[in-house]
Design a protein that fits this description.
The complex is a heterodimer of chains A (about 250) and B (about 525). In chain A, α2 packs antiparallel against α5, α3 runs parallel beside α5 and α4 runs antiparallel to α5. In chain A, about 70% of the residues lie in helices and about 0% in strands. Chain A is flat. The termini of chain A are far apart. Chain A folds into two domains: about 140 residues, no CATH class; about 70 residues, no CATH class. Chain B is α/β, with parallel strands linked by helices and about 525 residues long. Chain B is about 30% helix and about 20% strand. Chain B has a six-stranded mixed beta sheet with strand order 6-7-8-3-9-10, with helices on both faces. A six-stranded mixed beta sheet of chain B has the order 15-16-17-13-18-19, sandwiched between helices. In chain B, β9 and β10 form a beta hairpin. Classes of the chains: A mainly alpha (about 250), B alpha/beta (about 525). Chains A and B meet through α4, α7, α8 and α9 of A and β6, α2, α3, α10 and α11 of B.
Chain lengths: ~250, ~525
């Protein structure tokens, strides 16, 4: 950050890993391309190639191991459970089950990478400026993200407040559900109130009163174009390999 | 900072009714505020002061955030307020719900973006606004990492960057600890000396604000005019601060307005003190992990803290926000578990059970240690005031008949009878606080809690509800119950404190009490 009129962070030389630095819009487009390219096919090879490429990207994503474990575990669990269910109850055998599991993980992984490698502010800027997403929902979601820690603190307080009233789940699962539902409702009421106050503060700062300018520029660099080109090439290679190996199969084929 | 001329505010026969309400918040308001005037707006709680500020900010018109019915006219420089957005800057109570962006610079820029300012103009203005509040960090400082006072100063910078000609401040220090409040008051005093903008301020703690103004070095106080409004009515007093307080002081105080020199003097029965009931020894506690902060080490909020709670004694925890005061309160209440150390019952309370308090089942704990949270609605669990009071005794196995009789008595005692069938969430702030104290007492006359724990019990109360509450808990202390409170309220500290425990940076220090221990109210 520095010179006159330059916005604080989305400058070029910030020393972050390239996947973190890449324009979030490019990452979103790449993730959507992967989804669009993989949804129609159900073989393990095309999905496997894309998944492998996604995993190769990981060391460059700037992810810390702790975050990777918290994200990777649900991903593996999801893939494994889908695979097992398809194997047990599907009619198409082992290869198809493996294909379904691999395909799902291959589609989910880029989405997760977009989520964890993008700064929320940069993501909103990119969505609005590059992908022409309407301003109001984009800014609304961004403001709501800022309130997440506040909601977490409110959730903890509500739990303590219930114990103070003599309400506690203990080992009884029915009581646990009732207490949870009551706390969730109270949190909802609090969240709506907090949201209303925030919306009012935004309105008081002239939000939604007409056209607005952007303080930050969402930069599109050559690497962003390359990310999309590379994704397309990857998909072409994946499908080509599957066809040449004879495993390529359409979803409703 | 702001150099443009202030805005002219004119109200004629103005009134406002929130949608879904039967009564007018304000009605028949005739008022002219000249450009550059600094006005302090006063009134009892529920007098519609915030509504008036929001209306001046243009939030109540067509498509505004607040819906309702308006009568009369509210003009800013001759144009309807709703059409003049951007002229007025509004700063509210809670900085937490006013910051929009994740980084400080972006947040100040937010309003400028909405004004469609060119990018080349935005950043110099952001920088100068941040200089104006002496912001000690860079533009990319995370807003979440700021203290309450710093956050509120940033909110003010966000409003000032828009160069408002009308600056509206709605209790800007209410949610802050004394240090944060002093930080914001200092900024406001400086601002009053430099800005040409018209300024309208709503503030309960009038004495602090006038004091800050009087101490101004530039020969001009923070406010030079006081306007008092009445619930459902119009302006009942208007003029120079000294004159208004001299002529209407006692009458305003009676209506609940905080007036310097007319602080409430509640009747406080004496209490003799008693044996220890709860003892916290060598307690260490960590802050819960923030979402997304997967790698940070747990932050220690309490570090080998000791505290003793005696029967028939008012023990007050003080200290800045984030010092570990609330954490200590939750430990003493048996609601949270210390990472190290013990919180154990003593004396009569140990006769019930000798296990550490946090191991007590919730039902038993609620019966002996009552806790009143800062946001009273956090602990409401039913749909009507009466059910709220019936909840505990019925669960404790008290008969339907006995419960009904006791609930009626409680409703009577706490003046909640007329509201028995109302939903707890619809009550006013003072009523909610009374109800949450009532729920803590609802186990029955024989089982009222031995210890009553309250978090910021007087927050946001007007003088009447303040006195009622203090008299209520003073009565409980005289009956031999232990009272433990966390508070920033200086007056409460002066009037009703036997033991002060000052919490600072995770340590607890016992300081001599400010008020005579015989509890007389002088």
């Amino acid at each position: 950050m520095g010179g006159d009129g330059t916005p604080p962070t989305p400058g070029g030389e910030d020393g972050r890993p390239w996947l973190v630095r890449a324009n979030p819009a490019a990452k979103v487009v790449a993730a959507l391309l992967v989804a669009a390219g993989l949804i129609p096919v159900v073989d393990p090879v095309s999905g496997g190639v894309v998944l492998a490429a996604g995993l190769v990207l990981l060391p460059f994503s700037g992810l810390h191991r702790g975050v990777f474990v918290t994200l990777g575990l649900p991903l593996l669990l999801m893939g494994a459970s889908i695979g097992v269910v398809n194997l047990l109850f599907g009619e198409d055998g082992t290869v198809a089950a493996l294909g379904t599991a691999v395909r799902l993980m291959a589609i989910a992984l880029p989405g997760m990478l977009v989520g964890v490698t993008s700064d929320p502010t940069e993501l909103a800027d990119a969505l609005v400026q590059k992908l022409k997403v309407p301003e109001r929902p984009a800014m609304g979601v961004l403001a709501a993200l800022r309130l997440m820690p506040l909601l977490a603190a409110q959730w903890r307080t509500l739990g303590l407040a219930r114990r103070a009233r003599g309400l506690e789940a203990g080992p009884n699962p029915v009581a646990a559900v009732t207490v949870f539902a009551g706390t969730a409702f109270a949190l909802l009421v609090r969240a709506i109130r907090t949201g209303t106050q925030l919306a009012m503060a935004m309105d008081a700062r002239a939000f939604g009163s007409g056209a607005r300018t952007r303080a930050r520029v969402s930069h599109w660099r050559a690497t962003d174009t390359w990310l999309i080109v590379a994704t397309l090439i990857l998909l072409a290679v994946a499908h080509g390999l599957a066809i040449s190996l004879g495993t390529w199969r359409l979803l409703f084929g | 900072m702001t150099s443009e001329r202030g805005a002219l505010v004119e109200l004629s026969d103005w009134g406002w009714k929130h949608s879904g309400r039967a009564d007018w918040s304000l009605r028949g308001v005739d008022l002219t505020i000249e450009p550059g005037e600094r006005v302090l707006l006063l009134g009892a709680s529920g007098a519609g002061k915030s509504t008036l500020l929001h209306a001046m900010a243009g939030l109540t018109g067509e498509g505004g955030a607040i819906t309702g019915e308006q009568e009369g006219a509210l003009l800013i420089d001759g144009a309807p307020a709703a059409a003049s957005r951007g002229v007025a800057g509004l700063v509210g109570q809670d900085p937490e719900t006013q910051l929009v962006m994740a980084r400080a610079g972006d947040d100040v820029a937010f309003g400028l973006e909405n004004m469609a300012l060119a990018r080349e103009e935005i950043w110099p203005r952001v920088r100068s606004a941040l200089r104006g509040i002496a912001f000690p960090y860079g533009l990319d400082r995370s807003t979440a990492a700021l203290s309450g006072g710093e956050k509120q100063r940033l909110v003010i910078a966000g409003a000032l960057a828009m160069r408002p000609r009308l600056l509206l401040l709605d209790e800007p220090t209410a949610n802050l600890d004394p240090e944060g409040a002093a930080l914001v008051r200092g900024l406001l005093t400086e601002l009053a000396a430099t800005t040409e903008a018209t300024l309208v301020l709503v503030e309960h703690r009038v004495a602090d604000m006038l004091g800050a103004g009087g101490a101004g070095e530039h020969g001009r106080g923070l406010v030079d005019r006081v306007i008092v409004v009445e619930p459902g009515g119009g302006v009942i007093a208007d003029g120079e601060p000294r004159t208004v307080f001299a002529e209407h002081g006692s009458r305003l105080a009676e209506r609940g307005v905080w007036v310097p020199g007319h602080e409430p003097r509640p009747h406080i029965p004496p209490a003799s003190g008693g044996p220890p009931l709860i003892e916290a020894a060598d307690c260490t506690a960590h802050a819960p992990r923030e979402i997304g902060a997967l790698r940070t080490a747990p932050h220690t909020v309490l570090d080998s803290a000791d505290a003793v709670v005696d029967a028939a004694t008012s023990t007050v925890l003080t200290g800045p926000n984030g010092s570990g005061k609330s954490t200590l309160l939750m430990l003493l209440a048996g609601l949270a578990r210390p990472a190290q150390g013990t919180v154990e019952p003593r004396g009569p309370l140990a006769a019930v059970s000798e296990r550490p308090l946090f191991r007590w089942p919730a039902r038993r704990l609620a019966r002996h240690v009552g806790t009143v949270f800062q946001h009273a609605e956090d602990q409401f669990v039913t749909g009507t005031v009466r059910d709220e009071l019936r909840f505990a005794p019925l669960r404790a196995g008290m008969g339907e008949h006995a419960t009904a009789a006791w609930v009626e008595e409680l409703l009577e005692r706490l003046r909640l009878g007329a509201l028995a069938d109302a939903h707890p969430f619809t009550l006013s702030g003072g009523e909610k606080r009374r109800l949450s104290v009532a729920t803590a007492l609802s186990f029955g006359p024989a089982h009222a809690p031995d210890v009553l724990i309250l978090d910021e019990p007087t927050f946001g109360q007007d003088t009447r509800t303040w006195s009622e509450l203090v008299e209520l808990i003073a009565g409980l202390r005289a009956e031999g119950r232990a009272i433990v409170m966390a508070t920033h309220d200086e007056l409460l500290l002066r009037r009703f404190t036997d033991v002060e425990l000052r919490v600072r940076a995770g340590r607890v220090h016992r300081v001599p009490a400010q008020c005579p221990t015989d509890g007389r109210s002088r």
